[in-house]
């Protein structure tokens, strides 16, 4: 952490009103934002795997009331910022967190949404971590004095862990849809990944060769359907994004090797669904001890299982409960 927390908290309270005004009325160095829900576009250096620099796109949400800090939301494989805000009146983790007092920045990772799309072979975990690390530096520059919490989902949790392991700008880490366990999980039923160029949703977007997405109408796998609104599942399909074969090894390596987790030295919250495919078959009694073991250098580790929820915690009917849990924990972690 870059400063003692009580100093950062005092700074957050002191500049909170100014932050809200800056988002809603004044241009920043990265983007002019005139709406509560506005764009943030930042060019960052990368310098790994043949990628010199990239443009990262994110959506910003101004906080309501006292500003508690910044949440940077990092989506998983085949998702972009829409995972955190599908629009159309369905559940929105981003909007709820803003109502809870957080300045929310929902990111499009490299290769997704409005961010740069390098050749598929260069969309690696190393590129994702390096680009997010520099993005966090820019967020810190824009909102200096506010604590920064990284909130990842699935593969986005792996990327967030990689940044939390090396950055002095991150104050707390939330891992969702990802966990550590002693026994191998089952991936049975995981959606087939098919070329994005031939997908009914993504085929006309001119994506680079070898970008992948889930096969049409296969995203129900990520849900516990009795606890999911069909309109949400349909919106998920309409807004789905991409992945690449080059990203897959990073997920597997962290799941088994725990290199990022071992280097994290900020408070950690791990949240998974009871029907999470990675959790299925795990010993419930071992869940929290396994997370504490993985994040052994973290000053505190809390682990939570959400009943009746699947992989996409932010998109189930009880998502408001999960988001409230995250927001309360984050507030205490940076206090």
TrEMBL record:
Source species of the chain? Umezawaea endophytica
Q: Where is the signal peptide?
A: 1-32
Please verify whether the record's keywords include ATP-binding.
no
Q: Where is the AB hydrolase-1 domain?
A: 72-317
Q: What UniProt keywords apply to this chain's record, in alphabetical order?
A: Hydrolase, Signal
Q: What is this protein called?
A: Alpha/beta hydrolase
According to the UniProt entry, its GO molecular function terms are:
hydrolase activity
Name the InterPro entries on file.
AB_hydrolase_1 (IPR000073), AB_hydrolase_fold (IPR029058), Carboxylesterase_BioH (IPR050228)
């Amino acid at each position: 952490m870059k400063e003692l927390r009580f100093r950062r908290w005092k700074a957050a309270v002191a500049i909170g009103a100014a932050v809200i005004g800056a988002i809603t009325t004044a241009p920043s160095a990265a983007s002019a934002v005139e709406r509560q829900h506005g764009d943030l576009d930042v060019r960052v250096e990368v310098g790994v795997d043949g990628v010199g620099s990239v443009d990262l796109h994110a959506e910003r949400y101004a906080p309501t009331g006292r500003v508690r800090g910044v949440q940077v939301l990092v989506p998983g494989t085949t998702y972009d910022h829409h995972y955190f805000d599908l629009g159309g009146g369905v559940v929105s983790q981003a909007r709820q967190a803003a109502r809870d007092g957080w300045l929310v920045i929902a990111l499009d990772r490299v290769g997704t949404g409005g961010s740069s799309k390098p050749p598929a072979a260069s969309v690696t975990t190393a590129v994702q971590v390096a680009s997010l690390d520099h993005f966090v530096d820019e967020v810190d520059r824009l909102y200096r004095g506010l604590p920064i919490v990284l909130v990842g989902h699935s593969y986005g949790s792996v990327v967030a862990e990689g940044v939390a392991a090396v950055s002095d700008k991150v104050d707390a880490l939330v891992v969702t849809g990802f966990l550590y366990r002693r026994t191998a999980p089952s991936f049975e039923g995981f959606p087939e990944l098919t070329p994005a160029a031939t997908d009914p949703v993504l085929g006309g977007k001119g994506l680079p060769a070898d970008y992948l997405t889930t096969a049409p109408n296969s995203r129900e796998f990520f849900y516990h359907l009795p606890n999911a609104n069909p309109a949400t599942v349909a919106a998920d399909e309409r807004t789905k994004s991409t992945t690449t074969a080059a990203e897959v090894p990073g997920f597997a390596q962290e799941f088994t090797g725990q290199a990022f987790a071992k280097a994290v030295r900020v408070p950690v919250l791990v949240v998974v669904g009871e029907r999470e495919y990675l959790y299925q078959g795990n010993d419930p009694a071992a869940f929290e001890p396994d997370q504490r073991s993985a994040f052994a250098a973290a000053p505190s580790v809390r682990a939570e299982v959400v009943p009746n929820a699947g992989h996409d915690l932010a998109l189930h009917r009880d998502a408001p409960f999960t988001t409230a849990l995250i927001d309360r924990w984050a507030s205490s972690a940076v206090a």
